[in-house]
Q: What sequence folds into this?
């Protein structure tokens, strides 16, 4: 019966899975989403209690009915991101039905984590103000370093050339990836609850400061060696370097907030 239910769930979710795949391939802000589902599945497999601890629950059936109705309504209305979240909720409700609330508490995190793979429509709109802020702060810093630069919105003017701090330089891609990473990291470490909350919240300032530092370096490289070197060659690889630096900062913060050990039940 459970195998049949999983098969029906997969068949029902095919439109959502197809939409998610297209988003992960084409939406730069959610390209990391392709890794979230496999990680969530691995965490569920590691955290699941022994079969003898599973107890059927009628409350899970109620939750399943609600999520199915929400899924079908969202799919009919072409609100794909709501349908995707409802589809993940259906999976959680199935586990709740089969295992009861105790099992659900044990394996609840993988389902919450899977929600981070669902692209939200308002995220991309945040790239415009973020790119303006990144350009403004980067301009102030490089002027202090002696670089003759003027910043107007997301336009950076150097002698002889104008550069645009576009959506790719907004830092939003790094923020989304780092938030996902920090949520996972905060779950995997042991430590005080307040320390893990700080880990979660630190993703935003780390990503923003790291992105401003990246834009600063881009402007300096463009000023010294030309636009081709700065915004073509260097721009391609700088993001990976600063994302790695952000992860190191996250590890250092975890040590500072006494989250220094990893959970043993997922490794």
A:
């Amino acid at each position: 019966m459970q195998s049949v239910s999983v098969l029906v769930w997969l068949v029902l979710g095919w439109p959502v899975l197809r939409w998610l795949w297209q988003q992960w391939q084409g939406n730069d802000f959610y390209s990391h989403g392709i890794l979230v589902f496999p990680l969530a599945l691995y965490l569920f497999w590691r955290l699941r209690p022994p079969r003898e601890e599973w107890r059927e629950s009628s409350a899970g059936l109620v939750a399943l009915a609600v999520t199915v109705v929400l899924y079908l309504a969202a799919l009919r209305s072409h609100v794909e991101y709501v349908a995707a979240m409802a589809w993940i909720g259906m999976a959680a409700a199935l586990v709740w039905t089969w295992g009861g609330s105790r099992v659900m508490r044990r394996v609840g995190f993988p389902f919450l984590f899977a929600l981070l793979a669902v692209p939200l429509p308002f995220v991309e709109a945040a790239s415009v103000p973020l790119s303006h802020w990144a350009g403004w702060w980067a301009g102030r810093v490089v002027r202090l370093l002696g670089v003759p630069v003027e910043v107007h919105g997301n336009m950076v003017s150097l002698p002889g050339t104008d550069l645009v701090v576009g959506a790719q330089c907004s830092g939003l891609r790094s923020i989304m990836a780092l938030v996902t990473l920090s949520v996972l990291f905060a779950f995997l470490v042991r430590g005080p609850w307040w320390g893990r909350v700080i880990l979660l919240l630190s993703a935003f300032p780390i990503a923003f400061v790291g992105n401003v530092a990246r834009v600063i370096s881009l402007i300096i490289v463009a000023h010294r060696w030309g636009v081709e070197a700065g915004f073509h060659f260097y721009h391609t690889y700088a993001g990976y370097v600063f994302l790695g630096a952000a992860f190191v900062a996250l590890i250092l913060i975890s040590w500072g907030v006494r989250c220094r050990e990893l959970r043993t039940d997922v490794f």
